[in-house]
Amino acid sequence: MNPHNTIDKMRSMRMKTMAELYRRTISENLYGELSTDELMTTLIDAEWEERQRRKIANLIKRADFKQTATVSDIDYHPQRSLDKTTMQRLFSLSFLKNAENVIITGATGVGKSYLGQAIGNQACQMLYKVRYFITARYFDKAKLAQLEGTYPKLLKQLQKTDLLILDDFGLHSMDQAARQLLLDLIEERCSSSSTIICSQVPVSGWHELIGEGTIADAILDRIVYSSHRIELQGESMRKKHGLNQ
Q: Which domain-ending residue is among 24, 42, 61?
């Protein structure tokens, strides 16, 4: 048996991590104490873990998050009114399995975006497909897709996305085109996928924000009544961190 041929075959099958570890095993006499079964397990585990790492990295890249947000860095200061038990339930991602939504509201700077993206990052770690949009930029993207004739394809892609995050919802007024785009999006994902909406505007003001009663009713019926709500309190996190620097 020629081990170099085996290494080349591993590489040709894109088992690069496994091939490199096997090469080191031979050249550096690694794992000499392991049985054949134990060595195979070690090689396969290393390849599998590296592929999982790359898959997670690709999911995070495709999500297009605005910032790196992690579960471990969330601030549970009492002034924020952020219940740790509630957050642990959300981080378990059971809401994704039930196609439920999450609404995060609060004043500017209190950490809505960070919290939404931390949940999104956790979903990527568990191999869910996630997409993040500033709401106004999604509308721009969708309008351009309509002009280019790719709008149905965009909706289909987002329908297959496990978790969609719409940030800065309600920061700009909605015209008729934006209302219809939002309704299309919500209808496409309703009962099959989950959406996180982060907004400075309390839910009680969304009907007026969306405008046109019939469309507003349809959108809110599909989003609000199947949602977990988080209302953040306290001072601006940007201001707080700035003062601590």
A: 61
